[in-house]
Amino acid sequence: MHSSIEATFREFLKIDLKKVKKYEKAVLASRDADALHQMRVSLRRMRSVLFTFQSVIPKKITKNIYTHISTVASCCDKARDIDVYIETYLNKDTLTSTELLLYNIALKCREKEYKKITKYLKSEKYKKFKKKFKKWIKTKKWRKKLTEKQLSVLEENIMPFAVNFLKSYQNDIYLYGSTIGSVLEDEQAHKLRIKLKKLRYATDLFAPYFQNRLGNLKKILKELQDILGQLHDIYITKELHKVFLHFQQDKKLYAYIKKVEFFSTYKKEKLKEVFFLKWKLFTKIVQ
Asked: Cβ contacts of residue 78 below 8 Å, gap of 6+?
């Protein structure tokens, strides 16, 4: 499969910008949790594309676009956190009176966050950004700030670029992981989760050019990201509990929340054990 670096860069951004527009309609129409999730995935993928190609289209050129994408994604974060919480802890056929109280509080918080999202997605600022971004991609506006040498690099085949990026970034993650030691701290888990997520997105993007040769890497990246994602959700759960308790002081609710957090702490330690087993597999693949 032959494609230039620039053509691939453009195509990746076009695909996910189209998806963002598609899913935002569902978010605005019905406040659909899955649509919001998919919208955020596409936003993160676009940021990942900008990151992946920054050696040929420098960060200083894409900084403004990257910031705007991050702003949209950040606007959706809290609502998504609440959706995950409801799905994880309150998606039951029958709820106890305490769980029902918690569920109603969560719904109030969710409604508040979705109102913020709706307001932002309907704003002139967001509409102008989409229009500007679409034009930026269509007219290859980044070219205006590149030298002749840099422009010639963009015409090169994507394959060598993809191979070099994946190899380099795998090594970067491997080196970071080697500093962790035998205890995975929360901050380390957070940083590693972000790094692995970027590598996974890049792997998914470049996979068609490798004719299924990235299967093992994609599998272990998904497993590691799932583990680190669950660890992140446990952290977010505690933060949400602070918000929920602020809504209503109730002894039974407090006791229920502390019970959830107790079991989450146990789960957290088990997840870390599994992480180190999967991390060993990752190091074998990338070495």
From this structure: 113
Per residue of the chain (287 residues), give pLDDT as tens: 579 999 999 999 999 999 999 999 999 999 999 999 999 999 999 999 999 999 999 999 999 999 999 999 999 999 999 999 999 999 999 999 999 999 999 999 999 999 999 999 999 999 999 999 999 999 999 999 999 999 999 999 999 999 999 999 999 999 999 999 888 999 999 999 999 999 999 999 999 888 878 999 999 999 999 999 999 999 999 999 999 999 888 899 999 999 999 999 999 999 999 999 999 999 999 88
Going along the chain from its start, the domains and CATH numbers come out as 1-155 (1.40.20.10), 157-287 (1.40.20.10)
SS3 of 113-148: HHHHHHHHHCCHHHHHHHHHHHHHHHCCHHHHHCCH
Of 243, 258, 273, 268, residue with least CA distance to 81: 243
* Type of residue found at 20: V
pTM of the model: 0.93
